[in-house]
Amino acid sequence: MRLFTFILLLISFSVTAFVGEINLWSPGFSYTTKPERVLYQSKPANRPWRLCALYPHLKDSYWLSVNYGMVEQARESGIQLQVFDAGGYDNYALQLEQLRQCADWEADAILLGAVSHDKINDRLPELVGDIPVLGLVNEVSQQNIAARVGVPWSEMGHNVGQFLAKRSEHQSLKVLLLPGPKNRGGTSLIEKSFNQEIANHNIQVVDIGWGDNDLEVQRNLLQHMLEKHPDVNLIAGSAVAIEAAIPELQLRKLNGKIDLVSFYLSHEVYRGLKRQRILMANSDQMVLQGRLSIDQTIRLLQKEPFLADIGPTILTLTPENISKIEVNLSLSPGDFRPEYEVYSTSVLNK
User: Fold this and answer.
1) DSSP for 232-259, written as a single string
2) Could you list the residue range(s) of the whole structural domain that residue 218 is in?
3) How far apart, in whole angstroms, are the C-alpha atoms of residue 153 and residue 242?
4) pTM
5) Pairing mode, if any, of strands 341-342 and 80-85?
6) Do 237 and 157 share a domain, yes or no?
7) Residue 250 dihedral angles phi and psi, to the nearest 5°
8) How many CB atoms sit inside 10 A of residue 38's CB?
9) Do 219 and 140 fall into the same domain?
10) Is residue 2 in some structural domain?
11) What is the pLDDT of residue 183?
12) Which of 8, 59, 96, 322 is paired with 121 by a 20 to 30 Å CA distance?
């Protein structure tokens, strides 16, 4: 296996460096090929670059953990970071306006956690001119995108589907599916790959509920679906849906009668795994994705060798292995709150 090692230059802007193995997809912007495992080392900034990051929302601890990784890497690299939150996947117009604000701020680069897979791409030249735009976490079309950090969300669906397919060898499963907002982020890819894996197994998806990754929205969806389908024995959903399910099942005295699996990780899902209330969850190592996105952008701006399409390995977490797996590259510390600005000390001292 070929290893790419990037040598750390010790200059005043950098404090620490991330070193570890990640996935590289080649050709870029295609998850159809098997990724190559490469050794990666973060790069110090040679000036306090101005980076602008756009998130679809900060409603759950998934994007909070991405935010933590970006903020930590920005501070360690000595660069400036401005963060915008669109407030939800329906807020397409707001994210367009936030792109304009990034350009007005004279950002050197923009990291786009897009609310849409492809609707924003053709507007980028108009909104931000020649400022380079990099894809952040969410699936995004290659048009007008210089590079990206992420994972194949189809793999998240495959992993959960495979887990349930194996479980269905011993028990027939009637499933409520709550993947999140329809055709946003990676939900359509998750649904498609999940259904592919459970086909021809003793698994029936009795209902599917789409909705924003908002706790109240997911709780309302779940309550309606449970009333409509009282004979289900498993719920598969987004982390927010599973967070809503834990107290709802307890209230209905359905603990032990309906099992839970999550397509991705959050702090509450992590606790649910530790307490054996959740059977399985993916982690696409959100903190690491945040760190990688900052470093990838620094490399691009400094015209140094960089890998255009990278991301972490997706971890499969269960109550049996959760105590053995380090989650510091997946979840932010429990007391971390969203941070929207990072300033370089060299700028503050001017």
Assistant:
1) --EEEE-HHHHHHHHHHHHHTT-TTTSE
2) 153-283
3) 18
4) 0.91
5) antiparallel
6) yes
7) -65, -40
8) 18
9) no
10) no
11) 77
12) 59
Could you tell me if 139 and 25 lie in one domain? Answer: yes
Whether the CB-CB separation of 347 and 80 falls below 8 Å is answered with yes
Dist. CA 304–CA 298, nearest whole Å = 9
Domain count, the chain: 2
pLDDT at 349: 47
- Whether residue 210 is found in the same domain as residue 304: no
* Mean pLDDT by groups of 10 residues along the chain of 350 residues: 32 52 89 90 93 95 97 96 95 97 98 90 95 93 93 95 97 96 83 96 97 94 97 97 97 96 97 97 97 96 92 97 93 96 68
CA–CA distances in Å: residue 116 to residues 122, 218, 255, 308 = 12, 20, 36, 21
195 backbone φψ class: left, alpha, beta (φ>0; ψ -120 to 50):
alpha
Whether 4 is in a domain gets the answer: no
Please state, as a whole number, how many other Cβ atoms lie within 10 Å of the Cβ of residue 254: 16
- What is residue 350's three-state secondary structure? coil
Query: Do both 99 and 171 map to the same domain?
Result: no
Residue identified by tokens 């920005």 is 74
Say which amino acid occupies 21.
Answer: E
Chain centroid to CA 22: 15
At what angle are helices 187-198 and 153-167 packed, to 10 degrees? Answer: 30
Give me the half-sphere count of Cα atoms (radius 13 Å) on the Cβ side of residue 162.
9
Query: Residue 145 belongs to a domain with what CATH number?
Result: 3.40.50.2300
What is the C-alpha end-to-end distance of the chain, expressed in Å?
A: 46
Token pair recorded at residue 325: 């797996």
Identity of the amino acid at 88: G
Residue 36 lies in a domain: yes
What values do phi and psi take at 111, rounded to 5? -110, 115
SS3 content of the chain, % helix, strand, coil (to 5): 35, 20, 45
Does a structural domain hold residue 213? yes
Q: Within this chain, do residues 38 and 78 fall inside the same structural domain, yes or no?
A: yes
Pair 31, 132 in one domain: yes
How many Å is the maximal CA-CA distance in the chain?
67
Quote the pLDDT of residue 117.
80
Query: Does 245 lie in the same domain as 201?
Result: yes
